[in-house]
Amino acid sequence: MIIAENVSKRYGKFLANDNISLTVKPGELTVLLGPNGAGKSTLIKSICGLLRYQGRITVDGFDNRSTEAKRLLGYVPEVPVLYPMLTVYEHLEFIAKAYRLEAWQGYANELLKRFELDDKTQKLGKELSKGMQQKVSVCCALLPKPKAVILDEPLVGLDPHGIREIKVVIADLKQSGCALLISTHMIESMEENWDTTYILKDGKTAAAVKRGEFDGSLEDTYFAITEEGAAQ
Ligand code: ADP
Ligand code: MG
């Protein structure tokens, strides 16, 4: 569903992504791991068509900057960007209009309830805590029922209920055949559902591992690979 080939991104002289290739298949959870500054958010922003980059990225065969690709992708940024003067419900209405969704209200209410926002629908963006903003951001991304969902550090700033709900949503999306790309440094949070993990280090792919290729947990795998790299 998502194919990135030889993606490089420079900020001035600094090479933040160095020739990275990855694939995210339908019904699979692909995880991006790596320390702070490894280049995870940069790669995600390139995939979402928000940055200029070198290389080639397609979503279901469409160039990632095309309208077709954008319709297929749902993106939850690392830092939620809400409209301060729109209410929670107006955010969803805005998305529904932008995507020309029909009969979206039932699903919107379901999402709001799931994330315990159903009693906050009239609150303004500027009145929400970071965690609530994150939850609204997730609801907005999921409302158009995208075929591919990209979440950048989705668990940061969420309360325990929010974390549990995100994990359930991830499992449900995967089950429904959605292609998922999630960056995190909370390795254990993806332990149950991951299929492929790319470990980024200093802007490069240090390893690409598939579930079952390694004994032990994803965490063991991560440390084995990053420490192996450090020993060289
Ligand atoms: P991660 O998400 O893995 O923590 P990022 O992709 O945010 O990493 O950042 C990768 C590197 O690129 C970091 O060294 C960061 O300082 C740098 N970087 C990110 N955004 C910019 C920018 N807009 N301008 C210059 N450097 C940036
Ligand atoms: Mg990041």
Descriptive notes:
The protein has 232 residues and is an alpha/beta fold. It has a domain at 2-81 and 145-226: P-loop containing nucleotide triphosphate hydrolases (Rossmann fold), CATH 3.40.50. It has seven helices and ten strands. The chain has a six-stranded mixed beta sheet, with helices on both faces. A four-stranded antiparallel beta sheet has the order 2-1-4-5. A hairpin with a 2-residue loop joins strand 9 (196-201) and strand 10. Helix 3 runs parallel beside helix 5 (130-142). The radius of gyration is 18 Å and the shape is globular. The relative contact order is 0.19. The mean pLDDT is 93. The structure holds adenosine-5'-diphosphate and magnesium ion. Magnesium ion is lined by residues 40-41, 78, 152-153.
Question: Which properties best describe this structure?
Answer:
four-stranded antiparallel β-sheet; binds adenosine-5'-diphosphate; 232 residues; 34% helix; binds magnesium ion; six-stranded mixed β-sheet; alpha/beta; Rossmann fold
SSE inventory with pairings:
Layout lengths: L1 E10 L2 E11 L4 E5 L6 H8 L6 E6 L2 E2 L3 H6 E4 L11 H11 L6 H10 L15 H13 L5 E5 L7 H16 L3 E5 L12 E6 L2 E7 L7 H14 L1
Parallel strand pairs: 3-8, 3-9, 6-7, 7-8
Antiparallel strand pairs: 1-2, 1-4, 4-5, 9-10
Bound molecules: adenosine-5'-diphosphate (ADP) and magnesium ion.
